[in-house]
Design goal:
InterPro entries: L-PG_synthase/AglD (IPR022791)
Order of helices and strands: HHHHEHHHHHHHHHHHHE
Number of helices: 16
Membrane topology: Multi-pass membrane protein
Number of strands: 2
Helix content: over 70%
Number of domains: 1
Subcellular location: Cell membrane
Pfam family, one: LPG_synthase_TM
Keywords: Cell membrane, Membrane, Transmembrane, Transmembrane helix
Structural class: mainly alpha
Shape: globular
Amino acid sequence: MTQLPINHRGDAGPPVPRARWRRLLGPLARIPTPIIFAGSVALALLVLWNQGALRDALAAIADADPNALLLAAPVYVGSLALLSFRWHALVLMAQGKSDLPKAAEAFLTSVVINYAAPIGLAVPSRAALTKRALGLDAQATGTIAIWEIGMDVAVLGAGTVLWLVLADGSPAAVRSELAESAEIFTIGAVGLVAVTLAAGFWLLKSAARRDRVLPVARRILLSPSARPGAAVLALVTTVVYWVIQGFVLALLLRSLDVNASFEFVLGLTSLPILVGMLSPVPGGAVVREALMYVVARLADVPGDAVIAAAVIYRFALFAAIPLLYVVARWWIARRREPAALQIVEPRRR
């Protein structure tokens, strides 16, 4: 006897057709992650070559001290491994279980996608890849995406405040630079406000949507209180990661014969990255580089050397990520059986 499928009410009934967008994206969702990774790397390298970034990086490396570069290389690779672990900790915070090599594979692939794509797709792509690899639900996917950005903004914001306090003349210089870019920020802010108001009106207009969305949003925002251990682990990892990035940039600057003081490195690794992250301009282009020049000018450092260090820093990503990706894939393939997912129980209130 043929058994009818169960509809959303739990009764036997005709099959419910899938949404058209799900049918269209179905074949894409079945593409293996290694193929996505390899294709994204090839596309990203092609984009960087057409932009001239690879030639600039090779020229900057040729002028740098090789000893300092050799010292910075393993530190940089280790920091990216730490960032992959941070993603694993966020998954633990979101749903209480994770698989480190699969989480790392999804994270590393998404970073390459972000460089290959014309707009920033790192957060949504890594959330989608992690959802596929580890079976996240919609709430867990939103939790890790939102809290990754939130933790980075919190740490970089604290670093920015500290730099503004320590660096002489920094508040006035920053105000002047941001005033010159005010038109860009105004247009972006107006667009963001318009989108937010339209989304809020659409959400609040329907009681059914409010009842469905607001509890989920509340759980996402309060998720660190459910598993505080995993949340603290993710936050501490974020702090350590950005401290290491400052150390790596200091080594790159020294390889170019630049005296990298604490205030200078703190300014480079906080304000420009933070503004670029929050900028309405995709990738923070123009604004981020302009603020790097502001930081360099206050430290009496040639701006060209700072840009050269940033170019080497960007190029190092494509040397480190394939190495870490191979390690993650080897770890996954080496296991005879899928490892049991680590469980982090929520705190009982």
